[in-house]
Design brief:
Helix content: 40-55%
Strand order of the largest sheet: 2-1-3-10-4-11
Largest sheet: 6 strands, mixed
Distance between the termini: 58 Å
Number of helices: 12
Order of helices and strands: HEHEHEHHEEHEHEHEHEEHHEH
Oligomer: single chain
Radius of gyration: 21 Å
Length: 330
């Protein structure tokens, strides 16, 4: 039988135990001389992409701590497949990392029959840096001002409401399909090759609505060029309490992306733990936190297992949607 004092290994004590274990790993790895050369960080996207911006911001802090450069290597192509394929070919020694995100690690494997990697087998999650959320915006001229109005309009005008996404089987397409099926309406899916093209057309009134990253849409909302109907969070964003959530109209609807460092499968556990410790330390620095908050991001400083579970749960969530809508991988 346990008394009150026996709860010493509790939620209050657990962080200290984890920190002590991480520090032990740090000493162990440093005693082996890691890192003693440049660490390559593959970004499976072009400069300026969210992964690129975050990896550079955090990577500089880690470089300063290690005394070794984290060299950014942008390798865009095939929806992120090119960069992640290169990671599978790298030695599992901690000297090659990559930035993984929900799109290239979960949606791509669900959308294509042939992918150059197996997310759950080929990669070792290191640290989840941050997650973002989507927002639903419309052109200001549309005849609805809320999520409730949009759903009523779509049901009264089957197939007339046009939604722009980044293409069949892309993350924004899946997010739109989840919204549509949960709310019970139909729409006209308009695929685009890029987010910038979607924004151009919705501001020009050529399409009615889109779901997109809050980070990229927020400036246009503030400028009055787009009308925001809801954000895809469980609760309203602390920095934007006036923006309603989609879940206030469609209970349970949430959607967004995440960004984190990954390594080749088989990378030594003590190396993973040291990297996790230093990335998390970087995420806690005031200047990093301020920039992340300004981007509308939620910061994460959990263990690698948290990142691994995030990936697994996303596969379950989006895989079920793909089956429910009868999506056929290309």
């Amino acid at each position: 039988m346990r008394d009150g004092k026996s709860k010493s290994i509790s939620s209050a004590a657990l962080p200290m135990i984890i920190l002590a274990a991480a520090l032990w790993h740090s000493v162990s790895v440093h005693s082996q001389g890691y890192p003693n050369k440049v660490i390559r960080v593959i970004i499976p996207a072009a400069p300026g992409d969210s992964c690129d911006v975050l990896a550079r911001l955090v990577g500089q802090k880690v470089s300063d701590r290690f005394g070794q450069q984290l060299a950014i290597d942008n390798r865009p192509g095939a929806g992120g497949q090119l960069g992640l394929m290169l990671l599978t070919q790298a030695a599992a020694d901690g000297y090659t990392l990559a930035c993984g995100q929900g799109g290239n690690m979960v949606i791509v494997p669900l959308a294509y029959q042939k992918v150059a990697y197996d997310t759950l087998r080929d990669f070792a999650p290191v640290a989840l840096m941050a997650s973002n959320f989507l927002a639903l915006v419309v052109h200001p001229s549309v005849p609805f001002n809320s999520m409730k109005d949009l759903i009523a309009y779509a049901k009264a005008n089957p197939g007339k409401l046009s939604f722009g996404t980044t293409g069949e089987g892309a993350f924004l397409h899946f997010a739109t399909e989840m919204l549509r099926t949960q709310a019970g309406f139909t729409c006209n899916h308009v695929p685009y090759k890029s987010v910038s093209s979607i924004i151009t057309d919705i501001m020009g009134g050529r399409i009615d609505a889109t779901l997109g990253s809050f980070i990229s849409l927020q400036p246009h909302v503030v400028a009055g060029k787009l009308r925001l109907l809801g954000v895809a969070r469980a609760a309203r964003a602390p920095n934007y309490p006036d923006f309603p959530t989609i879940a206030e109209t469609i209970p349970g609807y949430q959607s967004g992306g995440w960004f984190g460092f990954i390594a080749p499968a088989g990378t030594p556990r003590d190396v993973i733990m040291l990297l996790n410790q230093e990335i998390n330390r970087a995420m806690m620095q005031p200047d990093v936190r301020d920039k992340m908050t300004a981007f509308g991001l939620e910061i994460h400083t959990e263990m690698p297992e948290f990142f691994a579970e995030t990936i697994r749960s996303d596969f379950a969530k989006w895989g079920k949607l793909a089956r429910d809508i009868g999506f056929k991988p290309r």
